[in-house]
Amino acid sequence: MPSLQFEETDRGLSLTNGSLTVEVHLNKGTYDIHSATPGVPAITNAAATVILRDGPTFSTRGEDLEFVGTTDVSDTHGKGVTLLLTREAAETEPEVHILITLYERQPFVIVHAEIQNPAASPLRMQEFRPLDGATLETEAKALRFYKHGWQSWSPTVVLDTTGVDVVTAPPVIGPGTQPESREGRFTSDLVTAIVDPSTNHGAVVGFTSNTDQFSHVWFDRNTSSLSAASYADGIELRPRGVLSSEPLYIELTSYAVHSLATFGDTLAAEMDARPPTEVTSGWCSWYYYWQGVSEPEVVANLDYLAANRDALPVEYVQIDDGYQAEIGDWLTVNDKFPHGMKWLADDIHARGLKAGVWVAPFLAGARSRLFQEHPAWFVKFTTGEPAIATLNWGQLCYALDLTHPEVAEWLEATFRTICDEWGYDYVKIDFIFAGAVDGVRHDPNVTRAQAYRRGVEIIRDAVGDRFILACGNPQGPSVGLVDGARVGPDVAPYWLAFDRPGQRTPLSDPSALNSIRNSINRFWMNGRLWMNDPDCLLVRESDTALKLDEVRSLATVIGMTGGMVLSSDKLPKLSLERQNLISLLLPVYGKTAVPLDLFQAPDVPQVLELNCGTHRMLALFNWSDEEAMIEEPLPGSDWHAFELWNEEYLGVVSSLISLRIPPHGCKLLRLTPVLGHPQVMGSTLHLLQGAMEIAGEDWDGKSLRISLTPVAKQDGALYIWGDGNVKRIPIEGLREKRTLTI
Ligand code: 9PG
C-alpha cells in the first residue's frame, strides 16, 4: 500500500510517496523534487514568484519560508497531502504562498503559487510562477523539448535543445504575454516535456487547468533551468483577497511519451472534459470548394452521400466558410444559397444525415454590418482603437468583447437561430482565438482566458448537447466546453507550402505535412480532452498536388491517431478506388496510436503504434524526399506482418523490421502474434485490418470460424495463414454479419 510520509528535518521538510520525494528548504525559499527511479532527472532549487501589474516582483528565492502546516486532500486525483508554505515578508508586502501536493498513487506533484493582498487597497496581479528558475538535474548528453502550441494552428513540435526555438507570430502565438526571448531559451504553451532521447527519461511540466489563466513553461539550455507561469492579466485583487495560479503538474518520468498521456488524463479530470463515447465522421465543404461553396454543390455531395450510405456512412454534412453575407453577419446568407440555411439543414436531415455549419463567432470583418453598427461591442487597444484579431478575407477583423452583455445576448441569439430555427446539429466555431486578444474589455476584471471561456460557455448554453467543434482555438481553456477540437494547421491539397524556392514556410501554414505533424504530436489529447480533429482527408486525383503515397500517409495518420474522420472532396467526382480510401477509415475505431519515436525522430515521428487487442497496427513513415529504409525494433515474440497498402504478407518477423519506403509514403502493418495454427493475419476491409470488421475468430483444432461485422468497405479480402501457406479469402458484399468457416 503506498502511503505518504512526512518529515521535518534539520534541512527543512520532506514528503514522499515512495516514488517521488518533495524537499523544502525553508531557509533558502526553494523546493526540490526527486524520483526514486535511477537515472530519472530531478528538479531542484525551485522558487515561487508572483509579479504584480506594474512590475513589483516577490520571489521566495533567498527568503525564509514559514511552514504553515499540512492538509490532507482527497480530490479527483486521489488522496494526498498538501504542504503549505508562506514567504516571510514585510508587513506591507503581499504574502506569497506555495502549496505543494503529493498524492499517494500519482506519479506527479501539483504546485500552486498564491498571493494574498495585505494592503487596504486593491492590487493588480499579473503573473504567477509556481516554478521559477529551477534546475533540471540530468546527466543526459542531449535533451529534446516538446513545444506545445497555443491554439489549433500553432506548431506543436519536438525540438533539439542544441538548436533554436521555433519563432511564431500572431495569430498562432498567445497575445500579450510571452516569456522574454533569449539565446538558448525554449518556450511552450500549457505543457512541455524535456527528454533525454537516448532513454526517454525526462520531466513533464504543465498546467492542468487554463480555466482562468493562460500559461507557459520554458527551459533555458545554458543554465538548464525550468520555469512555469500562469497569467492573471492584471485583474484586481481586493484587500485581504487571495488569488492563485493554475495548478502546475510536475512529473519526473522514465517514459515521457506515456507521461504526456497521464498529463492529459489529469488535465481532463481537472477541467471536466467532455470525452467522446464514439468518434464521429463527416463531410466538409472547405477543402474543395473554399469560399466558392454553393447550395447546388452541397446538394450534389449530399445526393451522393445519400445514394452511397453503405460506402460512406458519415454522420455530418458540414457547410464551411462561404454561405454568409459577411464575416460577422452570420444570419444573412449570400445569394449562392438561394433557399437559405434552414432549407439546406432540412434537406440534409431528409437524407438521414446531420447538419453542421461553420461560424467565426468571436470576430467581425471591417466590412460587416455587425462591426459598423456596434463599434462598442469590440475589444479596444489602450489607444481606444478596436483590437485587431487577424487580417483575413481581404479585411481587418476585429475581436468581439465577450464580456459585453449585449455581445453575450447577440451570441446567444445567433446560435439559437442556427440550432433551434435553422436546425443545425453541429457548429464548427472557428478563429475563436479572437475571444482571447489582449486589450480593454467592458469588464476590466477578467483575464483573457476567462473572457474566452465566457464566450464559449454562452455558445455551449445556446446549443445544448449539440456538437461543438472548436477550431483556431486556444487549446487549454477549451477543455470541458467543446466536443471536438482541431489540433493542427489546415490540411491542403499539397504536401509542403513554399514561400521561397527550396524553403519551407512556417509550420502553421496550410499543408498536408503541417497538419500531420500536429495531429501526431497532439496524440495524447484525443479521447481525453475531446475528439481530436486532425483536419480533413483529401483523396482526390484531380485539383490536387498530392501523390498517392502522400494521400495514403494522410489517411494512415488520420486513421491511426483515432480522431474525427472528415472528408473534403467533391464526392461525385471520385473514382471508386479513391472513394475506397475514405471507406477504409469508417467506422472510426477511435483509439489513439502512440508515436513511439516522439523524442527521437528528427522532426515528425515516423512510427505509430496502435494496440487493437487481437493485433497491433504499426505505421512506418518516410517523411523525407527520397526513398529510405525505415527500421523499427519489435517487442516480444514472432509476428505475422501484413502490409495494407501493397496487400502483401511480409512473413514472420521478430526483433526488428526494416522496410524500404517511398518518399512521403508509409507502410501500414498488421502484426499478429504467431499462434502456430490457422489464423487471420490480414484484412483489407478496414485500415486497422480487423479492429472493426472481425468480431470473433475461433480455431477449434479443425476449422477456423471468423465472424465478420459490416464496415464501410463491403468488398475486400481476408488473409489467413495456415500450414505454412497464405490464403486470400475474397469478401464481397459484406452488408450483414457473416460467419466464415475455413
Ligand atoms: C475557412 C477556414 C476553414 C479551415 C479553418 C480556417 O491564418 N490564416 O489566415 C488562416 C486562414 C484560414 C484558416 C486558418 C488560418 O482556416 O482552419 O478549416 O474552416 O478557416 O475560412
List the defining traits of the structure above.
single chain; 742 residues; alpha+beta; 10-stranded antiparallel β-sheet; 10 helices; 49 strands; binds 4-nitrophenyl alpha-D-galactopyranoside
Task: Note down, in words, how this protein is organized.
The protein is an alpha+beta fold. Helix content is about 15%, strand content about 35%. The protein has ten helices and 49 strands. The strands form ten sheets. Strands 1, 2, 3, 4, 5, 6, 11, 14, 17 and 18 form a ten-stranded antiparallel beta sheet that branches. A hairpin with a 3-residue loop joins β2 (about 10-15) and β3. The longest helix has 17 residues, at about 405-420. The two termini are about 50 Å apart.
Please outline the helices and strands.
Blueprint: E1 5-8, E2 12-16, E3 20-25, E4 30-35, E5 42-52, E6 57-59, E7 65-75, E8 78-87, E9 95-103, E10 108-116, E11 123-137, E12 144-147, E13 157-160, E14 185-189, E15 191-196, E16 201-207, E17 215-220, E18 225-237, E19 242-244, E20 248-253, H1 256-270, E21 281-284, H2 286-289, H3 295-307, E22 316-319, E23 324-326, E24 329-333, H4 340-350, E25 354-359, E26 363-365, H5 369-373, E27 388-392, E28 395-399, H6 405-421, E29 426-429, H7 448-463, E30 467-470, E31 484-486, E32 498-500, E33 503-504, H8 512-521, E34 531-533, H9 548-561, E35 565-567, H10 576-583, E36 594-595, E37 607-611, E38 616-621, E39 628-633, E40 639-643, E41 648-653, E42 656-661, E43 666-673, E44 679-683, E45 694-699, E46 704-708, E47 716-722, E48 725-731, E49 738-741
Parallel strand pairs: 21-22, 21-35, 22-25, 25-29, 29-30, 30-31, 31-34
Antiparallel strand pairs: 1-2, 2-3, 3-4, 4-5, 5-6, 5-11, 7-8, 8-9, 9-10, 10-19, 10-20, 11-18, 12-13, 12-15, 14-17, 15-16, 16-20, 17-18, 23-24, 26-28, 27-28, 32-33, 36-37, 37-38, 38-43, 39-42, 40-41, 40-43, 44-47, 45-46, 46-49, 47-48
Helix pairs in contact: 6-7, 8-9
